[in-house]
Amino acid sequence: MKGFMQVLIVVLSLIGITAAVYLVQQKTHFLSQAYSGDQMLQMFSNVTNPSLANSQTKTFNFSSTSPNNVINATSQSIPSSSQNPGSSIVLGNNNSPSTSESYNQNMINGSRFTTNSGQSYAQSISVYLANYDGASPQIQMAIYTDINGSPGRLIWNSSDIIGNHKGWISVSLPSIPLYPNTAYWLMFNTHGKAAIAEVNPGQGISWNSNSVKYGDWPPVLSSGTLSHKEYFIYLSLSPSPNLITPTTNPSATLIPTYSATPITSPTSIPTPAPTTPIYPTISNLILGFKGTPAVTDTGDLNSLDGGEFTTGSQGGPATSMSIYINQVDSTNPGVQLGIYTDYYGKPQNLLWHSSTFNAIQGWNTVPISQSVNLSANTSYWLLFNVNGAGTEGGWDANSGNGWYSGNSNVSFGTWSNSISYSGNTDSQLYAIYVTYSSTNTSPSPTISSNSSQSSFVSNCNGQFCINGVNKKFVGVNFYGLLGNCGPSANSNYDSVMQTLSQAGVTLVRFWLFQPMGRSVSDLQNALDAAQNHGIYLLPVFANQWADCDGSQKDDSWYGGGYTANYKPYVLNIVQQFKNNPAVFGWMLMNEAEDGTNPNNLYNFTQDMADSIRQVDQNHLVTLGTIGRGQGGTLVSTGDYANLYNIPNIGFVEAHDYDSFDIAYPDVPSGDGIASDVQVAHDIGKPMLIGEEGMSSTNAKCNNGNQAWSNRPAYTQNKISQAFQHGVSAYILWMFDLNGGGDGCEFSPGDPLMNVLKTCSIGSC
């Protein structure tokens, strides 16, 4: 008996130690990654609409985990269920419905729900289909942020889900993080007559848009109507990413009891097996339209036909291509499929085409055996060609971007490497799609190092990263680095980079304006020196203002004037340095704005970003803005989010001046740094503070009265708070080898150099 008690004590002790170690590990993990409660509330607090103060919202509560950044992606359907999911962990309304809305196709509708104090991750979204008329309708769902009690910016939207039964319809999500104490809008749109269940008027908050073409999800919702009702729509949640949440009520599991069995001899306790590593998961994604077409096309013989489709936030290798053939020519049933790149809304370069296959009525699928890698957030054209006058493809209602070769007849089997003729565009949505695979891995830990780079800077879940490893950048503006305007390095680039590297600098922003007239060799020498010292360079191509760039930019310049000299100059530089790993990225403008016609600024940004990415797939592109309420770039009007949500814009920028003693300002309210950073979180792109300046003299740089001795402490506090709120890079204005300048300058030996060093090693 004594031997048995000794063994029992040993076993219980080991169990207790194991549990204690686990709790310590979990607490350590939480403390190493979580923000303080005040910081989280400041980042993610929700502003409600006073006119709807009495509305009801559903809430949930989890313990906090580390925040990630919200991403955009399309997803695949999961098996749907007509059973009431009951009390699964949700955000939204998953009760048993009693009423339904009238048929509301081609409208974006949804309801607003608010999280509680804990971080969580959305795993799936569900909506209750109460009724439908005729053929099974298609449904898409989406998640939007909240702005002052109305839908704000798009976070995620689904691809098509077929509503083939009444009841709950669900689709999986790519583990989207939701922030504490924050309102979200769960939205849907239907194609075909479908009625979604709703609560009788008086409960909750809903939003109904004006007419929106099915499949269109605007980056920012603008026009619609608020009302007091609530749809039966909800998110299934987990407190950690990539955990499967139950979709039905879990039944209680009894803990078994055991009778004691005498132990006659000590039993060895096995060593715990090592934890199985988490490997990347492969998921199949869809590019195109997978629905059943409603209309039979005509005249497909001797023509290339198809549509334009855009990938979501994940790219990957294409594995197969499919097309729906409405009718087949029994004599000549041959069909071929192909994939082209997009150039300004029309097909351009051939990536792949199939050999001939004999079509059947319905879906036809062929494998893609060669390497065809689809990039994220990129448009492609999926085309087909037929060998018989009686073989016709299918298309749906006028809700897509279609194209056909028209009068330029294309004989069957002819696939030009580059399409030189214009063809004809229309709004047909062809039933054609590509299946591609994407590898998902967990984010790597954040590091701060000054080691030489070996690859290009990219976006990893809303943070800058190199080779998949997150990295915070601390840098300086040295706008005259190449000379001919402002403080110059005098071509002694290696000495400058060595000085900056010793201060922990990993990023230098500088002017590369065309009127400055620097040679390609100057830029090459600066890049070589930077790479030797583990520093990246961020060139800025033009200035909103006349300084160093000849003239101030206006609406006519953004409306087309830039195409004469600026655009060719930029594309020439990009072509020559597209493979240089010391380039951090390309910044289109310094402090761009256009209050006269924001659409011109948007079109300029999209055109230049798309044009650069056609040439250079290695480097991120950004616009470059002050981000504090300038015309055409306001957060409060949605312009800021629209600009930076352009697919080929890779990161977000803002400048921090004036509020020198406020570490994390939102000045002006709703259009300051805090609001800018929230936009970056919402759209899943890294945030760069491209300029932060404080006067050293009390007379310049817009700050006025702070003493020289206060500047290092204020600056360090700003960098620290910015990084804690998710900013990925922070650049001070401005470094000058010799002193002098605009009052914000600092030189080697200035206390700010020590601040840079401290923050570069993560000790801000």
Topology:
Blueprint: H1 2-33, H2 37-44, E1 90-92, E2 99-100, E3 107-114, E4 120-132, E5 138-147, E6 150-157, E7 161-162, E8 167-178, E9 183-191, E10 194-199, E11 206-211, E12 224-227, E13 230-231, E14 233-238, E15 281-288, E16 295-296, E17 305-310, E18 316-327, E19 334-343, E20 346-353, E21 357-358, E22 362-367, E23 373-374, E24 379-386, E25 392-396, E26 402-404, E27 424-426, E28 429-430, E29 432-440, E30 457-460, E31 463-466, E32 469-470, E33 473-477, H3 493-502, E34 507-511, H4 520-532, E35 536-540, H5 555-558, H6 566-577, E36 585-587, H7 598-615, E37 620-622, H8 639-644, E38 652-656, H9 673-683, E39 687-692, H10 711-724, E40 729-732, H11 751-760
Helix pairs in contact: 3-4, 6-7, 10-11
Brief overview:
With 764 residues, this protein is α+β, with helices and mostly antiparallel strands. It has 11 helices and 40 strands.
